[in-house]
Structure formats: structure tokens, C-alpha cells
Amino acid sequence: MTNWNERNRAVIDEFRANNGRAGSAGNAPLLLLTTTGRKSGRPHTTPLMYLADGDRLAVIASKGGHPSDPDWYRNIVANPKVRVEVGDESFETEAIIAEPEERDRLFAVQAERHPFFAEYQQKVTRRIPVVVLRRSIAR
What we know:
Structural class: alpha+beta
Strand order of the largest sheet: 2-1-5-6-7-4-3
Largest sheet: 7 strands, antiparallel
Number of helices: 4
Distance between the termini: 41 Å
């Protein structure tokens, strides 16, 4: 069984050492999302695939098709203030849970590009959420 914390730590280290690229993630567009733990209050960083949507980035809370939402998503529900690292940029923003129509549009685009997302949705009864992250105006 894969130890996801160890795997994620290796991807995070590679991402930061290579100006926002992690070969271990293949060619997938990858960002690092740092949330505040809803119970601990400590920062937690998670590597996630993303979809660029204009000046916004969308991430999917699939948890690999697991029946429950990922911890990072539950942290966002409790505190939407997050830090995003993408490429060689880093910015703070508010994570916004996509409303149903927007969620469906973004999910469909990402699932077309990466069909495993559609497979994850078919495996679970929960509606997999999509979270939108907007770069702040001042860079």
C-alpha cells in the first residue's frame, strides 16, 4: 500500500526544487495547495492536478475515487484562505467551492482531459466537488 504522505512529500520537494515542475507527476499540470488544518490549525500542503480557467485555477476533490472528501477539501470548508504555488509563483487567495453548474462545466473539461476523474465519479455516490482558486490582482 502506498504511503500517500511520503509520496506527497516527495512530489512537494521535487516541485519546489524544480521551479514548479515535478517529473514524478508526469506531464500533469500540478500546483501545491496549502490549507489550514481545521482541527490542528497548522498548515498542510497537498500537490494537486489543476485546470486553468482564465485567470482561475480549478482543483477537483476526488481523493482518487474514495467515498469521503479529502482532508484538504474539509480544511477549505472550515477556512477558505489558502496559499497556492503554481510554476514559480506563489499567492494567497480564497478558495471557492464551485456552484453546481460551474462545477459540472469544470469537471467535464478536466474529465475529458484526464478520464480517470470521470471514473472516480462513477465509483462514488458523493458528488465530487470542484474548488476554484483565483490569482490575486497584485502580483
